[in-house]
Amino acid sequence: MCDCENSEDVSAGKPEKVNVETNISKNENRESKIESGDISLENATECKTRVYKRRWVIVSLFGSYSLCNAFQWIQYGIINNIFMEFYNVSSFAIDWMSMIYMLTYIPFIFPVSWLLDKKGLRVIALVATALNCAGSWIKVAGVEPHLFWVTVLGQFTCSLAQVFILGMPSRIASVWFGPGEVSTACSIGVFGNQLGIAIGFLVPPVLVPNVGGMDELAHHISIMFYITAGAATLIFILVLIMFQEKPDVPPSQAQVAMRTMVPQESSYRASVGRLLHNTSFILLFITYGLNVGCFYAVSTLLNRMIINHFPGEEVNAGRIGLTIVIAGMVGSLICGIWLDKTKTYKLFMTGYLPLGFEFAVELTHPESEGTSSGLLNCSAQVFGIIFTICQGKIIDYYGTLAGNIFLCVFLLLGTIITAFIKADLRRQRSNQLADTKAGTKQSGQKEEGISSLPQEAKT
Prior knowledge:
Structural class: mainly alpha
Order of helices and strands: HHHHHHHHHHHHHHHHHH
Number of strands: 0
Strand content: under 5%
Largest sheet: none
Radius of gyration: 23 Å
Distance between the termini: 28 Å
Oligomer: single chain
């Protein structure tokens, strides 16, 4: 018998068989480990799996603090003109309250991805919620017209928390959920972030109306910041008490294999290098950045686009943003469920957030989910900054229509590039495993820096 706990699978009450239906890459990776001797066939057959009801608590906690952080990302941009007046700064300065999330992510995602691999989910969750809580309270202290630098510091702290959040949905899904639930769970994780953006569009224009006096405006801004800080504090406490690293019994044979394998050292830099030499992943890297970057730009500049034509319509600007995000949320959930059943990864933009994460995992397995997700998000942040700055300047000089046409061109480009991504994952994975097997037989030893790759595989 293997070393895993003798627990029954809640859905069938029987041990999960070797040929259980799971993600293509995970199944074939497990088979390769069985053949290479890392796991014996008998052990793989007799190991039992179990999914816990607690998995819904874990993904809900993640969704909650992702929601809170996403709300703080957009709470300045959707009432850009009001914060301009209160702090006496330019619209471009308020745009940077959104873009700081994007800029911070780029240099910090690499050490955070390494930390996720080394320390696990609980440590990352605690750091994320602690930073989010601290940033929200710093903002409370900056509600004075001459303390713009304090509110910038608070937003910067929240942007650091985001680095610990965006790459986690795929990892939580694989660690806690069964093979037929992974894409759905990933979609739920992304759903929390999108819901936070939706609330960030809707609530700030209501809580902070465009009133004349500075004292009254400061009062309304304080209410919004205190509510946010209170929610962030409560979420931090709940995560501290309830968030668990992993289930006692793994939910899938893929996780059984990972726990049974002898730990091996792997170079994070080498892993990133391999991803950047994967043609399909590079195409996905570009298309994901183009699509999500356009969404970031529209979200940041929506208030400016609406107010330029309809002064005083901050609340309606928020409702328009809410409509955009709700459409995306519905698309994300539908795409996640569809993906679990069909594995058809080429869809359209409303489902691109969870779709991109899962597609990247399939294209790059056995590389870490955190690494591939981190690189995708990094691409989105880079394109988001570029698009926001460029569209903002185009709107200033040529009007809103020209700015929107600018984004439409790049969305079309992303659609065209997506068509060139290879979607035959089963054949692609078989070829990669066959190449690995051939290389191993020729060299007779592992190549330095790629010890995480399977050494033998069925072709």
